[in-house]
Amino acid sequence: MAIDVYWGSGSAYSWRVLLALEYKRLPYRSHLLQFSKQEHKSPQILALNFRGRVPIIKDGDYVCFESLAILYYLDLKYPEPPIFGRTPEEAGVIMRVICEYQSYAEEPLMKIVRAFFFRQHAGRRDELAAAMHAVASEARSIEARLSKSDWIVGESFSAADIVIFPGIQVLLRALAKPEAEELSSRFLPLEVNYPAIAAWIARVERLPGYERTYPPHWRADAGGAHRAG
Fold this sequence. Notes:
This protein has 229 residues and is of the alpha+beta class. It has two domains: 3-77, Glutaredoxin (3-Layer(aba) Sandwich), CATH 3.40.30.10; 88-220, Glutathione S-transferase Yfyf (Class Pi), Chain A, domain 2 (Up-down Bundle). The protein contains eleven helices and four strands, in the order βαβαββααααααααα. It has a four-stranded mixed beta sheet, covered by helices on one side. It is globular, with a radius of gyration of 17 Å. It starts with a strand and ends in a 9-residue tail after the last helix.
């Protein structure tokens, strides 16, 4: 039975779920919601998630929302290939890296993304520079990991890659906007400042099924997204 997936194009959190489904080669029915039409606030979606947010999955009669909860559910329900490791020790490291990203990188990263996606950057130069400094610090930690391994934790693609990859991609898209030029100079070019991250992005993009996860509205916006590799 196919899993129903409700998601939005360009949502880093939705992207996580699509990456996991493709990596596990699980059949799913895609329900792409239009944020501009407030479809995520429709009665149908509110009946699934009272918060009116995506991603949401419906697997038979079971409904799950919040991206990390969905990843955890999918790995327990459909354990091959695993995304939280094969041992308690591997799972512990993967979860620790995810927690570090959420605690120290995600908030400043999304502050930058929202500022440029929603044209809220005016008059916030120092605030956004501080956010970029925090992101760059955490990026150096990820760069160090990837300089020793193809994937963020260990030798296999995992939930750590799935959680962090979309965040970096939406950051790169935000920094590609002309009005972000001054801020982007603190982080880009990626291939020079973070070559291991750039190579990792290219590896993720080569995974089977990756193209089906790529935000469709980014394709229509020629030159709008940074594509490493």
